[in-house]
# Entry
Amino acid sequence: MMRSPAAAVAKRNPEQTKERILAAAIDVFSSQGLSGARVDAIAERAGANKRMIYHYFGNKDQLFVHVLEAVYGHIRSHERELRLDDLDPIAAMRELVRYTFDYFLGNPHFIKLLNTENLYEAAHLKTLPAIRDMHMPLTAQIKAILDRGVAAGVFRNGVDPVQLYISIAGVGYFYHSNVYTLSTIFGRPLGAKDAIDERRAHVIDFILGYLRVDGTGNG
Amino acid sequence: MMRSPAAAVAKRNPEQTKERILAAAIDVFSSQGLSGARVDAIAERAGANKRMIYHYFGNKDQLFVHVLEAVYGHIRSHERELRLDDLDPIAAMRELVRYTFDYFLGNPHFIKLLNTENLYEAAHLKTLPAIRDMHMPLTAQIKAILDRGVAAGVFRNGVDPVQLYISIAGVGYFYHSNVYTLSTIFGRPLGAKDAIDERRAHVIDFILGYLRVDGTGNG
DNA sequence: GCTCTAAGTAACTGACTAGTTACGCGTGAG
DNA sequence: CTCACGCGTAACTAGTCAGTTACTTAGAGC
# Structure
């Protein structure tokens, strides 16, 4: 029997099919949650057959695990490319805070996937043994900036890098994560460009204002 | 036909049935999300018949709207009972930050429900016209503390109450919301009492350290 | 050019799910 | 007392879902 024209166009390409499924899964899981996501919807968006999802990823939950691994890998690898060692401590910290804020802004799916995973109490993430190693450079990176700042006499002493990172991420994450409910309860369009620019400035001011020994956010 | 003994025990009580359904809905929606929640599960947990959910609340989504209204009402009404006017500005701010942190700690369902609602971009919350009025006292409360602090010369000038609230909430919310993924990626039990106490102190130090003109969190 | 393995497809299935139907019964107003 | 209305129940339905089966086809290795 003749192959249909449509089938003739789509050549075999296992790697690309896997990639397309993963990208579609990021889209659908982040917009619908884990329970709300439909495997059929992921297959359709990927332009792949549903059977291929089970072939490459096992089941819906394992596909979600692969999604988490991919998105964590993305943010952490971009973070490592910042080359903060080339900047003075204050500029380095400002850049880290800005990057973190803008990463959340530019990658809303990351926030939604993390919120979904926390709904399930990190059950999927816990099955990824490499995830912890992936985050050790981040802690080291922050510790290095803090140490340099303390040595230069510009940062306060005794700040825990992990606590600080949670605060840096928190002031940005919460804004982006809850922009819909916050805009509604306060009656302000917090998703508008002006509001986001204002928030970015506030967040940088906030972190630097806390860290600097003279208490200002100016550098 | 004779009524069963079990049915005889359960007397009619519309108010209590509504309450039980709402409480069960908070439990199930917060642990399973909106898509993951099963109407049958809510009915069973409420000890009510599924038909009663449709009788009192219309459908699953409208039930979720009632849940949001109930939980927002709870946090905001408790906030108003803090009587922060009786405290000096620094003590008042410290108490507001502590309350906010401990409210999230003691009400994990609140965080999970808000995350779920943000997944749906506040579609349900937007149908509650009273929600904005419910939050005006909060903004006013924070503004009053800030104004008193500036007048007393202990707080920096020009801080936007809404931006500040988002930061106060953010540094606590993110910690509690993402405690599962953060504990996993950093390999620390952030849900343990010691870690929570440390975080609470850090958060208070952080907000006060930013606000105070001398840059310390000490009062 | 043949064969074997893996990529890919379509139709299917059993379990589940939101919402409905039809009816029984408790209670308070008159 | 009584009866209408609203509380409450069980069984049902139409549709949906994750995962499977049975199959075809592409292409690498010989």
